[in-house]
């Protein structure tokens, strides 16, 4: 397939955000200098600033908010009710200026180093030598900006989702003599370079773009975020603040090179397929180069050397190829070791080295990539239940257990390796095997993908379209095409990436949210992107993994996105309208989004809120609740199950517990129907600021009660009791044992009907064998499921170390007595013995309490049972312990409600 249309014209503009250069062995290799110092920030106009901003120190990567925070000029927008004190920033034009001497290159990064460049050289050269060029590279500009070097406009950029390169060879001023001393800014040298990035007010730019191309409906915030290519949630969301940023959020580099260099991104795609003697791994490399303008490919006579090595460093295949402009180099690995998702096998990574060679044998440039050999399919086939939505890796069908991922900080320049490492650990520790990178944020960071390759965490990547109609006019479509090509090329090398998804809730919005009433009959709304442009780009530059046009996605009828029998669904009736038990109203083939809110951890609220008294409706709490009518929905969520809280501490515990239990209700139902239902991806894993939200882990990295529930729900071995009848919906308590491990689960099943005092009223014991990656449904005799007094009885099922409980009535109707506990605190543990049934006993961390637990935070104790809760310090080396652990239970909530009456 040739590169069509605009791809052929503008290929040199498509860059990746994290090319990794190989080790330098020749002076001909490119030299990279990172412009991470000498920057200043000035306010140019638009909304008036409340104080002078003229050439204040700035940090790149960074943004206006973080620079003003570091300068002590604004209060933390996350704190209290400060959020809207900085609204003027989104309406302001600003200038980032960097004064720098024309530098020699710094040594490039080695392939094993994560992408986090720093400047290492302050040497200077007078002028570029023969055949030498200098490229100015912007990894990420936020968002609409004019870039000027030494008074010459290089261009206007308008897309946060791509990078930009400019040839500045003829614009750089001669450097300082080596013995001049000091920086150009310090010496006042007239021959230093001045780089200006004038960033236009993002809110204003979005409004102006909407007027030019036509306003279109959107849901998510009050701004026309769909009119410019900036991450949608930066303008606010139902979990995020309205803090529209401006800045250079990724590195700026000067790249000095001679004769030719490899362009970024380098297209490397690995695949595996059956061969004559077994499976054959194939690596396809498509190299593109920048040339000295005086040369052409025909006269330059350049070649590329490509080498494939196995995980032990042994050479498997090599190739030398003369560049012609239509280049495709293919290497094969016979019978390669397969890359598997976490829990399914190992993650062997092979290495591909690409070298650009001059006619006289000099190495002009190098790249290195790691690849994994695996096949991935999305099985959407008709069956007796509808149409499946099952991910198949290396021929094995998987139940996907995961979460949606949003940007980890409102100020994305602050998202570093530690954020990704922590987030990936949060997912893996909760037994997840997939993260969905949601379409209202950014494409996945390179370091995140590298780490996921290593640990086997699968990535589902949305293209950045979310909850809005998008114009297809050239002003926007050219940006969309360029950003898609760049990122598909950049990301396709990663085996952890298993699915491209064109958009989030765009078809859903068009069909069900009234958009058609606000669109002219011939007005575009983005459908061509999802059904033609993006799949064409994926097919051309990748071709090894599936693509879906949207989520939710009905493969039978695109315009029927809520049909649970066909493809994937988003389940939001629960939370918005219905009680959690309504998850059981249908059996989705795959649930890609669903969730229930709860507050940030109590210790996190204490760090950011000063309300006195702190209540569910105090000003700080209200500002940190972005969901429409969120407080009422929280109350509606717990009211059918738990009593009304008597104070804020009870409210916090009640809503946190109810969040965990609502998601338990959903996931246990979905998982009990595997393989008919093939996955659940909750909304959401993480937060971007301290807020009441659907997250399992709050913005300070504190794991909420929901996270601990997920760890049990997503374990390989899971036991649940679900209502079943012959048609599957409603019905009587039935045991379901779910085994997602690769070996059989053989245990003795014990089921008892007990009263709240622990007396066994009826029982069943039977050996059970659950096959690998299979479910087993076990019907119970009528005597076990028929209580004499529903308010005083329950069913207890035990299979190995897995336990499931069934309550015949809601908590508010249970005859629970006040908790009677013996509590023995220890150095790093708490031993608890229950003298009566204690439901949902939880370890809570209060204000100023640094203690967390990697063990259990929530359990139900039957009379006479003892449990040990282990405590871990929240910070390495912190030996502080709480004055007294805070243990709360449903018993306590019921007793408090009784006392109030």
From TrEMBL:
InterPro entries with a match to the protein in the record: Beta-gal/glucu_dom_sf, Beta-mannosidase-like_N2, Beta-mannosidase_GH2, Galactose-bd-like_sf, GH, Ig-like_fold, Ig-like_GH2
Q: State the Gene Ontology BP annotations.
A: carbohydrate metabolic process; glycoprotein catabolic process
Q: Which SUPFAM superfamilies match?
A: (Trans)glycosidases (SSF51445), beta-Galactosidase/glucuronidase domain (SSF49303), Galactose-binding domain-like (SSF49785)
Instruction: Write the protein's name.
Output: beta-mannosidase
Substrates-to-products reaction catalysed: Hydrolysis of terminal, non-reducing beta-D-mannose residues in beta-D-mannosides
- Asked whether the keyword Translocase is assigned, the reply is no
Of which family is this protein a member?
Answer: Belongs to the glycosyl hydrolase 2 family.
What EC number(s) does its UniProt record assign? Answer: 3.2.1.25
* Residue ranges with Low complexity bias: 112-122
């Amino acid at each position: 397939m040739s590169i069509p249309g605009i791809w052929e014209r503008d290929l040199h503009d498509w860059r990746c955000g994290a090319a990794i250069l190989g080790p330098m062995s020749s002076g001909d290799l490119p030299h990279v200098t990172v412009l991470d110092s000498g920057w200043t920030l000035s306010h140019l106009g638009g909304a008036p600033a409340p104080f002078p901003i003229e050439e204040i120190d700035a940090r790149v990567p960074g943004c206006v908010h973080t620079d003003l925070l570091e300068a002590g000029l604004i209060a933390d927008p996350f704190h209290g009710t400060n959020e809207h004190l900085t609204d003027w920033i989104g309406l302001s034009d600003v200038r980032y200026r960097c004064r720098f001497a024309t530098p020699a290159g710094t040594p490039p990064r080695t392939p094993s180093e994560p992408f986090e460049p720093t400047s290492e050289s302050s040497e200077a050269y007078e002028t570029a030598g023969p055949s030498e060029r200098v490229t100015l590279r912007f990894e990420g500009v936020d968002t609409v900006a004019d870039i000027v070097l030494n008074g010459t406009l290089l261009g206007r950029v308008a897309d946060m989702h791509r990078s930009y390169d400019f040839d500045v060879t003829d614009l750089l001023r001669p450097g300082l003599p080596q013995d001049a001393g000091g920086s150009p800014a310090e010496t006042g040298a007239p021959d230093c370079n001045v780089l200006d990035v004038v960033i236009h007010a993002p809110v204003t730019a979005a409004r102006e773009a909407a007027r030019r191309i036509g306003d279109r409906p959107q849901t998510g915030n009050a701004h026309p975020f769909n009119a410019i290519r900036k991450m949608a949630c930066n303008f606010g969301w139902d979990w995020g603040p309205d803090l529209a940023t401006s800045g250079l959020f990724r590195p700026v580099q000067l790249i000095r090179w001679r004769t030719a260099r490899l362009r970024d991104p380098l297209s490397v795609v690995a695949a595996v397929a059956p061969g004559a003697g077994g499976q054959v791994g194939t690596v396809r490399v498509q190299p593109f180069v920048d040339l000295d303008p005086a040369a052409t490919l025909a006269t330059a006579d350049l070649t590329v050397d490509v080498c494939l090595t196995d995980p032990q460093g042994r050479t498997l295949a090599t190739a030398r190829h003369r560049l012609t402009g239509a280049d495709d180099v293919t290497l094969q690995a016979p019978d390669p070791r397969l890359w598997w998702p976490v829990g399914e096998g190992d993650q062997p990574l092979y290495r591909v080295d690409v070298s650009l060679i001059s006619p006289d044998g000099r190495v002009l440039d190098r790249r290195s990539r790691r690849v994994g050999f695996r096949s991935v399919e999305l099985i959407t086939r008709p069956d007796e239940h509808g149409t499946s939505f099952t991910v198949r890796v290396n021929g094995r069908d998987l139940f996907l257990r995961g979460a949606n991922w949003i940007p980890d900080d409102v100020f994305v320049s602050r998202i570093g390796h530690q954020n990704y490492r922590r987030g990936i650990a949060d997912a893996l520790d909760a037994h997840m095997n997939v993260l969905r990178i949601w379409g209202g944020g950014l494409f996945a960071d390179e370091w995140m993908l590298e780490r996921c390759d290593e640990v086997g965490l699968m990535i589902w990547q949305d293209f950045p379209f979310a909850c809005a109609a998008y114009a297809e006019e050239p002003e926007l479509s050219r940006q969309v095409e360029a950003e898609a090509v760049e990122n598909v090329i950049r990301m396709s090398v990663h085996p952890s990436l298993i699915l491209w998804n064109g958009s989030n809730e765009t078809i859903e919005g068009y069909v069900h949210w009234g958009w058609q009433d606000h669109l002219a009959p011939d007005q575009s709304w983005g459908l061509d992107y999802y059904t033609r442009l993006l799949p064409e780009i994926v097919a051309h530059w990748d071709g090894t993994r599936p693509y879906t046009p949207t989520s939710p996605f009905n493969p039978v009828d695109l315009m029927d996105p809520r049909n649970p029998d066909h493809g994937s669904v988003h389940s939001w009736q629960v939370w918005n309208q219905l009680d959690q038990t309504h998850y059981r109203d249908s059996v989705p083939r795959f649930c890609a989004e669903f969730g229930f809110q709860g507050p940030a951890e109590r210790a996190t609220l204490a760090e950011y809120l000063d309300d006195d008294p702190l209540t569910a409706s105090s000003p700080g709490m209200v500002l940190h609740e972005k969901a429409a009518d969120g407080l009422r929905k929280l109350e509606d969520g717990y009211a059918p199950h738990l009593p009304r809280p008597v104070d804020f501490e009870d409210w916090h515990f009640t809503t946190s517990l109810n969040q965990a239990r609502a998601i338990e209700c959903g996931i246990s139902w979905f998982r009990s129907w595997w393989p008919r239902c093939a996955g659940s991806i909750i909304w959401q894993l993480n937060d971007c600021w301290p807020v009441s939200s659907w997250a399992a882990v709050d913005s300070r990295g504190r794991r909420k009660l929901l996270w601990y529930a997920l760890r049990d729900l997503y374990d390989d071995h899971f036991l649940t009791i679900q209502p079943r009848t012959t048609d599957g919906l409603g019905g009587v308590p039935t045991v379901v044992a779910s085994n997602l491990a690769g070996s059989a689960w053989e245990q003795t099943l014990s089921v008892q009907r007990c009263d709240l005092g622990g007396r066994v009223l009826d029982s069943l014991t039977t050996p059970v064998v659950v096959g690998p990656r299979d479910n087993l449904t076990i019907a119970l005799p009528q005597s076990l499921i028929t209580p004499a007094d529903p308010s005083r009885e329950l069913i207890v099922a035990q299979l190995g170390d897995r336990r499931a409980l069934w309550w015949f009535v809601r908590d508010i109707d249970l005859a629970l007595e006040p908790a009677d506990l013996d509590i023995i605190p220890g150095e790093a543990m708490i031993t608890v013995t229950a003298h009566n049934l204690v439901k949902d006993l939880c370890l809570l961390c209060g204000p100023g309490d640094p203690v967390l637990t990697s063990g259990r935070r929530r359990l139900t104790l039957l009379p006479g049972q003892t449990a040990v809760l282990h405590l871990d310090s929240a910070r390495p080396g912190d030996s502080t312990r709480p004055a007294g652990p805070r243990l709360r239970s449903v018993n306590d909530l019921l007793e408090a409600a009784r006392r109030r009456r």
